[in-house]
Design a protein that fits this description.
Length: 89
């Protein structure tokens, strides 16, 4: 029996269940986006998808379409927030 997949999955499920419970207690809702959503690849300004950012060593990049400069993590956070808003609308 392999615990390699089941333990992390169970831990993540437990975490999301607790988070969902605590948010519901506050009158809020947990919104889940697709785990394959390319949040760090999309320019949050114009929507251009930069496939070069699949390389995790790319921490900052400039959008070739609109010229916006992006920090990988901040850009991903903005895209995740906006995708959650789109899903919940």
């Amino acid at each position: 029996f392999s615990f390699g997949k089941s333990v992390p999955d169970n831990g993540w499920n437990m975490f999301t269940n607790m988070l969902e419970y605590k948010l519901a207690w506050q009158g809020k809702k947990l919104i889940k986006i697709d785990k394959w959503y390319p949040s760090s690849q999309l320019c949050h300004v114009c929507g251009y998808q930069n496939h070069e950012t699949k390389d995790l060593s790319v921490r900052e990049w400039d959008c070739p379409k609109c010229g916006s400069h992006h920090n990988r993590d901040k850009n991903a956070a903005i895209n995740i927030r906006e995708e959650a808003r789109r899903i919940s609308a």
